[in-house]
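Question (not urgent): is this output format expected?
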Amino acid sequence: MRSYSNTYIFVFSSIMVIVVAAILSVAAMTLQPYQKKNVEINNKQNILTSVNIESSAKDAEALYEKYILEGFAINSKGEIKDGVDASKIDMKKELAKPLEERNLPVFISSLNDSKQYIIPVYGKGLWGPIWGYVALNNDLSTIYGANFSHKAETPGLGAEIDTKDFQSKFFGKEIFNENGLFVSVSVLKGGTANPDSKYEIDGISGGTITSVGVDEMLKDCLSSYEPYFKNLKQGIPEMIIENVTDSVSDESQVNN
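Got this back:
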């Protein structure tokens, strides 16, 4: 058997590490645009699912263009923010900021001669992050549809949040009560929700912690949009809200 010196082995190993690292780096850079595109298509599919439109990777973009009218970001006062691409907002990063500094995405669809307002939500499950989209009817209270996903919830238990059976429980529920107060939708321990309640659903049996995560996610995220919903209910157009704010700011600067 041929023997090699320690120097030879070290040099050979170093060259192999460098070559393999270079190949992996080139592959990662080459595939990055495709990975970003796949993420974008997946997000569009999830948005479409929240308004009960089934799509595939092949037709998601065409269906998105057909049914999603627009996407924009608002601030904590419910004012539209110029120059912010709603589709590129990372909800995990935004929720780590103080409320007044957040960019809050809104997507609007048009189905059945009416508008739906689609709100992204993000939270924490048992083993990792959970996220999704909630679509509201034009009354800005009744849930039109919902879509949830997860990273690592337990199969057969918490992972059931991404099933139609669980998501369909939200259809027709309301996030504001009769007095116009925000109440969200409470996800209760399985079998304890009042079937006649417009504000309660049963959580997943055996998936209590994940169900609590969904409950907290909805309350935390949807409550951030309350000023925006109230502005719309009062008939205040979004762009007027923003222009009034800008005008007041400009006038203040002139006076100073």
